[in-house]
Amino acid sequence: MKATIYDIAKEAGVSIATVSKVINAKGKISQEKRSEIIAIMDRLNYQPSVIASALTGKHTYTLGLLIPDIANPFFAEVARAVEQRGHELGYSVIICGTDNRNERIEQYISVLRQKQVDGIIIGTGVGDTSMLRDNAWSIPTVMIGREAYAGTIAHTVVSDDRQGGRDAAEHLLGLGHRRMAVLSESLEISSSRERLRGFRERLDEQGIELPLDHVRQCKYRVEDGRRQARELLALPERPTALFCCNDLLAIGALQAAKEAGISIPQELSVVSFDNTILASVTDPPLTSIAQPVEKLGATAVELLLREFRERQSQPQRAQTAAQGAQPQRIALQTELIIRSSTAAPRSRR
Amino acid sequence: MKATIYDIAKEAGVSIATVSKVINAKGKISQEKRSEIIAIMDRLNYQPSVIASALTGKHTYTLGLLIPDIANPFFAEVARAVEQRGHELGYSVIICGTDNRNERIEQYISVLRQKQVDGIIIGTGVGDTSMLRDNAWSIPTVMIGREAYAGTIAHTVVSDDRQGGRDAAEHLLGLGHRRMAVLSESLEISSSRERLRGFRERLDEQGIELPLDHVRQCKYRVEDGRRQARELLALPERPTALFCCNDLLAIGALQAAKEAGISIPQELSVVSFDNTILASVTDPPLTSIAQPVEKLGATAVELLLREFRERQSQPQRAQTAAQGAQPQRIALQTELIIRSSTAAPRSRR
DNA sequence: CTGAAAGCGCTTACAG
DNA sequence: CTGAAAGCGCTTACAG
């Protein structure tokens, strides 16, 4: 059987309280006892049960991460970042693939509560706010890549999507493009809205129009991007540049262009968003707005830890609506990565 | 505060034992009491603490998954499969990105033990067998995509890598290729060895030689594939076909060929392995040996569950070396997916 | 500096 | 059919 704190105590001829203290480096223990006990723990290969200590000490050192799909390269990278930073700080992470389905989200949050995770990071759409609101006061929560919902007490870490959209526009404008179109994800997602908004904003400033039918909403699959791009490319006044709200959609656009015999970047420029591994692997490689995934994930974890500390220091208020600090919102800078999918439009060459 | 079993019991005017029984559907409880208690649990939004129940009932309903890198598309897909099947069966999964580093692996296994996960799925290299051996008797373990180590009591689910290698060879041979080369991952990894072995075997059967310097070991990064491919393509008798042990390496090969002005598939055929999303996204799309990831993940979870049951039914022997059933080894079929990176060699056209 | 005791939220024989 | 009590492996005041 695995050794317990009792085994150690008996072996060392002390009480379990004493052993507990050396484990947690609390209280004063004489140097000799301490080292003797440590030696015994080593010898018996003793590892304190997180389960038991969670039942009293309250910490499970486990975080929950909700994302739509782990196999989507962007979220896979987010997951890695969260997991890495979490591990550095002593936390494990439970992944939850929600598929953006509300029932699943509810199930997961409920499971995470039952398992008493210390915090939750949400990178998925949450249709029903109320659930989140209920949850928020009990488990520290941070939204990653999505805006927090009104009435929710959650911190937020996002990329500066709007600026990213602006940068994409700026790049294309600089190359001389005037007729542009957009492949967007569902505009229900805040980040998509912001990217589009930034893009359009910059165009507006230059007095360039972005007709409504030049903005297409897609799911986040390659196939959707391809279909919508096909239609866009069949327009009488074919756009010379496409801004795609993620790499997957951009790949769809690349495929549609190829099918139509339209060469990239000579006849069509494509800018994508996310800069996942996919962007570097296509032909031509995609010019893309990079999200600082690493930092996104790390920041989310750090915000959570800060929240833990704050709640501990003001335990009385921990259950009131006013607990914790004010929810923070952190927007991280994106970066334009220029590859080979963009160039000046032909007419201008 | 969250409601506990005591709150429910008090509210219902029964003992906590009774409440516990209705939670677990154990023992006989009168229909009225049962429904009354259930109603109260609903009303108080009661959710039993997994932590507390784990301390007695022994199940945490949590699995650990060790993989080298979650952001690697192949492992991301494995993770999704494991997570999905796990969720269906009532288990959460903690992801652990090991980066193939031994210290990390040890840390993780130790953490997972402390958290009393019910089982561990290992998809990463494990340098030091002894650790695994020590672990195996205490936590049910299954290897996924890697062979179990000698002396280890772990089940194994793999793709039939050898057959996959054979199929790749067969495909290339059928197209008429004779001069071939291989981009492999480290041959310390059993799956890489098997792929190469199957490939070479089939060539041997046709009396075709695969010179030693035509087999290059790479890490699993695009850049390595590119560098090694560059060398291969500079050989005086340049190979007409390349078998790459994963998609990443194949992408490197594609890039090297492009740099060298070698057109694919006209002048060089490329077959990859894994068939991740990357294979469908390159230009040209890659002919690839698909691993049945979905099934791989699901099977791993199922083997674990079976092991749980077996250990429960023979608790006496659970701590002896002979516990559980014999370790199983399941090899799943791969599938050749033909895309556009392979064709007959030029000389033969 | 050290220990006895209560308690965390459950489950599980064992009585009744 | 129902409940009292012990126990799971820890932590935390509180005494000494």
Protein model, in words:
2 copies of one chain form a homodimer. By secondary structure, the first copy, chain A, is an alpha/beta fold. Chain A folds into 3 domains: 5-48, lambda repressor-like DNA-binding domains (434 Repressor (Amino-terminal Domain), Orthogonal Bundle); 62-160 and 293-333, Rossmann fold (3-Layer(aba) Sandwich); 161-291 and 336-348, Response regulator (Rossmann fold), CATH 3.40.50.2300. The first copy, chain A, is built from 12 helices and 12 strands. Chain A has helices at 5-12, 16-24, 31-43, 50-57, 73-88, 102-114, 129-136, 161-175, 190-205, 222-233, 247-259, 293-313; strands spanning 62-67, 92-97, 119-122, 141-144, 155-159, 180-185, 215-218, 241-244, 269-274, 287-290, 329-332, 335-337. Chain A has a 6-stranded parallel beta sheet, sandwiched between helices. In chain A, strand 6 (180-185), helix 9 (190-205) and strand 7 (215-218) form a beta-alpha-beta unit. In chain A, helix 1 (5-12) packs across helix 2, helix 1 (5-12) packs across helix 3 (31-43) and helix 8 (161-175) packs parallel to helix 9 (190-205). The longest helix of chain A has 21 residues, at 293-313. Chain A is elongated, with a radius of gyration of 26 Å. The N and C termini of chain A lie far apart (77 Å). Chains A and B meet through helix 4, helix 5, strand 2, helix 6 and helix 11 of A and helix 4, helix 5, strand 2, helix 6 and helix 11 of B. Strand 2 (92-97) of chain A pairs antiparallel with strand 2 (92-97) of chain B. Chain A binds a DNA duplex (16 and 16 nucleotides) through residues 4-6, 14-18, 20-21, 23-24, 26-30, 33, 48-49, 51-58.
